[in-house]
Every structure is written in C-alpha cells, then in structure tokens.
Amino acid sequence: MPDPKTSADVAVIGLGRVGLPLALSFADRGLRTIGVDNDPARLGAVREGTMPFQETGARELLARVHASGGLSLSERVADAAAARHIVITLGTPSFSHIEIDMRDIRSALDDLLGALEPGHALTLRSTVAPGTTEFVAGYLAKHRGFAVGEDVYVAHAPERIAAGRFLEEIDSLPCIIGGVGARSGEVVAELFSVFDAPIVQTTPVQAELAKIWANILRYTLFALPNLLMMDCERHGANVFEVIDLVNRDYPRGGLAQPGLTAGTCLRKDFAFSEERSNAPGMLLAVSRVNESVPLFLVEGIKRRLSPRAQDRPETPGSRAGVTPGSGLGALAGRKVAVLGLAFKADTDDERDSLAHKLIRLLERELADVVAHDPHVPTPTVSFEEAVQDADVVVVAANHHEFREPTALAAIAAGASADCLVVDPWNCWGAGQVFAYANELAVLGVERA
Ligand SMILES: NC(=O)c1ccc[n+]([C@@H]2O[C@H](COP(=O)([O-])OP(=O)(O)OC[C@H]3O[C@@H](n4cnc5c(N)ncnc54)[C@H](O)[C@@H]3O)[C@@H](O)[C@H]2O)c1
To answer: pLDDT above 70 covers what percent of the chain?
Structure first.
C-alpha cells in the first residue's frame, strides 16, 4: 500500500457536534490527531480546553486530550493532508427547495485536492445524499487522476450517534462503512477499529441510504402521533388515551408519543431522499405534519383562552379596552412562557428547534413571549420569572427539569389563576395537551 508522507494518523475536518467528539476520541485512543475548523472561535475554545457545546463526558475527555497533547489544531483544510486518514464532518444542510447543499464539502475537497497523495484515505462522516460518496471519488479521479480504491481511498462511514451519547455509542453502535473500489472499505475500517464497535462493510450508496433512512424512520414515526394529536383535537378525543388504546397489550402496536419533532438532522435528512423521490411529496408531507405542530398548539391556545378582557368595556387603549375588529386576537398582550428552546430534551442544541418557530408564531399573535431554558446558550429568563403571572405556559422541550412535579407546582403557584398549560410531551403524566395549571397541579399531587 502506498504511504503518504504524513506526520499524523488522522485529521478531522469540521469540529462541530460530530467532529469534535470524534477527533477527541481518536486522540484519546492514542492516534496523532489534527482537528481542522475554519471558525477561529471554535478553535480558540478547544485550545483553551473549553467544550463549545454540551456532550456527556466530553469535558473530561477534552481535558485528558489536552494533557496528552494528542490533538493539534488548524484553520486550514489543506493541513489535514498531514494525516493519512482524513475524515470530513462538515455540515450538509438542505436548500429550502429540497436539494442537498454540498458547498462545505465541495470547498473542503477543493482545498485538499492539491495536497492529496497516494495512500490517503478520505472518509465522509457527514450525512449525505445517495451518490455523494461516488461523486467525491469521481471528483478525485477527475481532478487528480487517482484510481480510487487503489491509489487513494474513499468511503462513507456515517455518524449515527445521538447527541449526548457519543462516548457511549462510538464503542457500541455498529459502524457502517461503504468503501469505493477494491480496498477503501478495508483501509477505513482500520481507522475505526480503534473503537470497540463492530464494523459492517457495505457499498457506499447503501451506507448513505442506511443513514438517511434511519432518520426518515424516526421523523415519520413521530409524525404519526403528531397527526393523531391534531385529529384528536378535531374529534374531541384525547391523544394520549388513543395511543394507550392502540398500544396496550397489543402485539402490533407501538405508536410513539407526540411532541415538537425537529432538530438539525431530522428536519433536513428526509430531503436527501425527497430530492429524487419515487413518491414525490410523501416525505414532504411527513415534514409538514411535524412542522405544523407549533401552529396547531397556537391555534389550540387561542381557542381555549378564557374570554378576553376585550369583551368588557373599559379604559380605551388598555388591553381591556381593545374592541372587536381592532386586529388584536385572543393572544394579544397575553404573557406566554415558553419552557425549552432546545430541539429535544436535555440538549443545548437549538438548531432547527421548533421552539423558535413557536415563538415566532406567538409573536405574530402579539403575545408577550418569555422563554426559559436551563441548557441553551441563548440567554433566557429564570423559570420563576418566566412563569410568574403567565397566562399560558408551553412546554416546548421536555428537559428533565420541567418533568419534575415541583416545576408543575411552581407553575400553579406563580402563574395566573386560569393559566393554560400546553404540554404535548406529557411531562407530568396528566395526559392532556391543553389543561389548566390548577387541574394539573391536583393531578400532579395525586401522582406524587
Ligand atoms: N449533530 C448531530 O447530532 C449529527 C448526528 C449525525 C450526523 N450528523 C451529520 O454530521 C455532519 C456534521 O454535523 P454537525 O452537527 O457536527 O455540524 P456542525 O455545524 O456542528 O459542525 C460543522 C463544523 O464545520 C466547520 N466548518 C464549516 N465549514 C468549514 C470549512 N470549509 N472548513 C473547515 N471547517 C468548516 C464549522 O465551523 C463547524 O464547527 C452533518 O452532515 C450532519 O447532518 C450530525
């Protein structure tokens, strides 16, 4: 096998939520590792030994790697060629017109092109549309004349780990590798064999499909209870009771629970199938269901708010003096506390969270929105301040702090007397998407 003149074992390009824990894990296993990112703030944080985001166990890992000196950092993608293995963990968003956005990957490839030598192995760890790994191989063949699989190696080894579980799952989840040509799969497997997880070899396109379809499966599985939640509202039924009826002691049940289903992966990975779909629109419909949950919640709130003061003739100009036809709806001037800005429980990741869409929709109703989230970097008010005198409390992310009965009791004590609590996650087990705080508090006390 040709051996490029390298001074490191592996380089990871893109030190984001996927790349940084991976680079640290390689370094922790004794590999001489280069981390590349074009964001100076990101590199600065890592250099100082500060984790730029939450990931279970990563702070200690970073401290260990810092002490060992096993990770060097660079802003220049071409510096990655100093390592035999180059792993790309760059973002792969989707354009709004449903097409994979490969600009970051294309740019990294262009930066690497001149620096690649026979013996280099390039692994795509990013989530990509079917055919992208072959495109990357073709790009190297076209521009450098490499025989991929013989001179250089290209494979897709998709990241399938859930945020918060990286260090546990890197050693346990089967590592899928789809290599191009004769030897790419085998060479890239050498790299990933530093971890304890079993390696599963397949073709590049099957690796790509397996990754995106795992996310499509989840996105669709969550769309079903979300659609049911909206159906139940229409029919005056309780979604949690219907789900229980579907699942209870029924061997072919398994309906999931509703919620605000989003996040940077689920919200875009379906597009990598949809852009060349045999059933165009099917996955778009799945997306539309999940995307319409915030609006469903806002409409549900509006229907339930007790008659507004606008119906009582009082001082003109005050909220009480608002007259029908003024353009102000049921939520205008109402205090709405949104609990949780992250896209899912116990993460600090706000990217593509539906909480932000919910807030935008509430603001379009002229509600006075306040948010609280103990995890995210966006500054928010305290829990007590958020719920104090709130007319509505919406649990947008089911962080463990909100699932405590004490949180419910604090809402009942601090919010307005007839505060509406919106809890599509069923945080307190009351089984009501929309309920009044006082009723829930009684239920909470009964449960406790
Ligand atoms: N976040 C997850 O939980 C997760 C899980 C599985 C798969 N994925 C996939 O992994 C890939 C990376 O996701 P992520 O969440 O880590 O993204 P991210 O946005 O957190 O990280 C990307 C990093 O790349 C850097 N970067 C961007 N352009 C660059 C360039 N030209 N040169 C060098 N650095 C550059 C950015 O500064 C950033 O630090 C995506 O394809 C995503 O779909 C993500």
So the answer is: 93
Task: Name the band, by pLDDT with cuts 50, 70 and 90, for residue 444.
Answer: low
Query: Does 436 have pLDDT greater than 90?
Result: yes
The rounded Cα 141 to chain-centroid distance in angstroms is: 34
Q: CA–CA separation, 292 vs 271, rounded Å?
A: 17
Spatial distance between the Cα atoms of 420 and 242, rounded to a whole number of angstroms: 22
**Which pLDDT score is estimated for 381?**
98
Dist CA 372 CA 420 (whole Å): 17
Q: What angle do CA 183, 186, 191 make, to 5 degrees?
A: 125
CA of 17 to the centre of ligand 1 (A): 6
Nearest CA to ligand 1 atom 15: 17
* Integer Cα distance of 241 and 213 in angstroms: 30
The phi, psi pair for 283, rounded to 5°, reads -75, -25
Q: Using an 8 Å Cβ cutoff, are 378 and 365 in contact?
A: no
- Report the nearest atom of ligand 1 relative to the CA of 127: 41
